[in-house]
Each structure stands twice: as C-alpha cells, then as structure tokens.
Amino acid sequence: MKALFLTLLFLVAGISLKAQKPVLIELKEAVIKQAELELERAMAPPEGILYKFGQKYHITGEYTLQLTTRNKGEVVSVFVADKKNGNIPSQNRLKDQVLDFKFSFKMPKNKDYKLSYTFKF
To answer: Which pTM value belongs to this model?
Structure first.
C-alpha cells in the first residue's frame, strides 16, 4: 500500500513538473507576438506585475523600450527609444525592472530576438 502511494505521488509530481515546462517558440514573429502579449498582461491593472511596480514607485509617462530576449525568455538588454512625459529616475527604474522580467517561453539557443514595446503609465 505504501509503495502504491509513493508511486502515485511521484507520478502526480512528474505530471505537474512537465506541465510547467516553458514552450519553445522558434519563429521571430511568434516570439514578438507572445512577448508583447505577456508585457500587456504585466501592464494590466490591477494585478499586472509591471502595473503594480509602476504604482509602487509612482512611475508616470510613456516609455518606448527596445528589448532583446534570448534562451529561456530572459531579457538581456533594454534601451530607451523614446520618452514622453516621464523623468530619468522613473525611466531608469523601469529599465532595471524590465531587465529582470522573464517571459514564460523559451527560444532556440544562441538566438536573440529584438522587440520594441511602449509602456504607458
């Protein structure tokens, strides 16, 4: 009976771990589309991670950032392309936060994908 319970426990744990595995996206257009969708969710009130961040640090304005992603959804570089009605401290704080952002998908190894996204606070 104990062996059966342990077997079931490992089976359920294995299935849940497999379900959390990030999806591999290879096409550039699909990577950009999925990344934009995830950034939109992160900016959506009231539960979006970046929305909450902006509220906490009183970030205002509109910032267009150019992001480079690679491997397992990591953001590896962030550059400011444009800023409207914002300030430098908020811009830098947002850049740092976006650099720590992780997408839920993975990409082919040794391939970078660049995208531009406008964050409106």
So the answer is: 0.79
Q: Is the peptide bond before 89 cis (omega within 30 degrees of 0)?
A: no
Distance from the first to the final alpha carbon of the chain: 57
User: Phi-psi category of 73—alpha, beta or left, where left has phi over 0 and alpha has psi -120 to 50?
Assistant: left
Q: Report residue 2 CA to chain centroid gap.
A: 42
In this structure, are residues 38 and 104 in contact, taking their beta carbons and an 8 Å threshold? Answer: yes
Q: Where are the domains of the chain?
A: 24-120
Q: Which residues contact 69 (CB under 8 A, 6 or more apart)?
A: 31, 35, 75, 76, 103, 107, 112, 113, 114, 115
pLDDT of residue 9: 42
